Amino acid sequence: MKRINWKKAEKGQSLVEFSLGLVFILIIVSGLLDLGRLYFTHVALEDAVGEGALYLSINPTCFSPSDGPKCTGINNAQWRIQNSSGASLVDWSKAKITPNPGPYGVGETVKLKIDYSYSLLTPIIPKIVGLNPITLTSTASQTVITNLQ
Fold it and tell me: Lesser CB count within 10 Å: N end or C end of the chain?
């Protein structure tokens, strides 16, 4: 009669269990990494749109550098949006920044909206969720406090 070495058989079983468990752990970790990046990007967009709306509440006529000679360089809302804290890691070529139509007077509300096309990095999560890219939307509004012409 042949004897079975159970210790050797258990080592093979442990390897199979480890490899099956590792697949699920990697899926969870990759999902957490993508969700972490998504949350960071959302917070950066919220900060950026708030910064732009705040700037437009003080200078309501300077949304972009093309709005006149006094709106060049750092003196426009688009520059403030793209250079706010955390916004340096956002790819602004994927973002669409839209203000509500002006002109604005003192006491009126200026609103900004940013739509951002966010691409997930891991290949597994988009197949599970069915979305890639995801559109993030951030909005902010401020009351115009000055009427600088």
Answer: N
Q: What's the confidence (pLDDT) of residue 25?
A: 92
Which tokens in the block code for residue 35? 């969700």
**Which residue type, as a one-letter code, is found at position 30?**
S
Whole-number pLDDT of residue 57: 92
> How far is the C-alpha of 20 from the C-alpha of 49, rounded, in Å?
44
E strand spans, the chain = 95-99, 109-118, 134-143
Q: What pairs with residue 136 in β-bridges? A: 116
Single pTM value for the model: 0.80
pLDDT surpasses 60 at 149:
no
Q: What tens digit of pLDDT does each residue of 50-59 get? A: 999 999 999 8
Among candidate residues 85, 67, 89, the one with its CA nearest the CA of residue 76: 67
The 10 Å Cβ neighbour count of residue 79 is 18
Task: Please identify which residue in the block is written with the tokens 């960071």.
Answer: 40
Mean pLDDT for 56-84 is 90
* Strand pairing category for 95-99 and 134-143: unpaired
Which ranges of the chain does DSSP label H, i.e. alpha helix? 6-58, 77-82, 124-129
Residue 92 neighbours by CB under 8 Å, 6+ apart: 82
Provide the residue count of the chain: 149
